[in-house]
Amino acid sequence: MEDLRIGTIVTRNSYGNDIFFRIMEIWPGDEEPEVRLQGLDMRLEADAPVSDLEVPPLLEVFRYKQRVVVQNYKRIGRLVDRRQKRALPLADDPAGDQQRKLACQRPGSVLHIDGNEEYLEICMDTYRQLNIKAHGFHHSEKEFPNVVCRYLEKYSADILVITGHDSLLKSGGKPEMIESYRNSRYFVEAVEAARKLIPSPDELVIFAGACQSNFEAILSAGANYASSPERVMIHALDPVLIVEKLAYTPVHEYVELEEAIANTITGPDGIGGIKTRGCFRWGDANQVY
């Protein structure tokens, strides 16, 4: 197809043309040119021959992007509304306004390392809307193990997010083997490196993984939350939705796994983990809890 180039948005005929991808790389291939694809709103990366690709009309692409933006806006709006309704009440104070000035509410802070620069920008914008302090950095997945400790030493964070793109390869490997995945080994190695630096799962909460990632290996490496138990695709915002629940749950309470996963778009097929302590602290001018 002569109109294919890096950046072109396409769908795949073999999968019903239901997911939109962006072409990230093109190479000759053995029998025909092949491409590396990344999902527009799913954290999926895949290879495909050009004969499997379809270039959708521009109007269809616009409608798809518009639909994704509207859905994300509604999800974020619901989160903000729910968080405001759950806001901790301030103690009675004759001064009223003075008490509010003294009040201190500190949601959990985030270090977010992402293999997709566009998704990173979306996630960082969402953190800002949710009033969650976050530092975000873009690196290729293979760089994750080498950069994670450098950032953890420089930026104090309650929650570490390591995400990007992944997929279960169709090369005949077994699902339990780390070699059967495009990027899962980098998520595992990054989590292991972070846990050597900060061993406690309460001191540093870790979410790691992407579409179809080796859930068991990532969780065994020390993550609190990981994808993907049923090797399904996860949404670009799923890590942020887990973070929101953790960041606004009081530090003396535990986030039940079912509650955290109910906060996500993908659900239990895409996200799993362990019971984890919240990261929200509050207080006044004299004490912080």
Automatic annotation (TrEMBL):
InterPro entries registered for this protein in UniProt: Peptidase_U57
Source domain of life: Bacteria
NCBIfam families recorded: spore_yabG (TIGR02855)
The protein's name: Sporulation peptidase YabG
Organism, as annotated: Heliobacterium chlorum
Gene transcribed to yield this protein: yabG
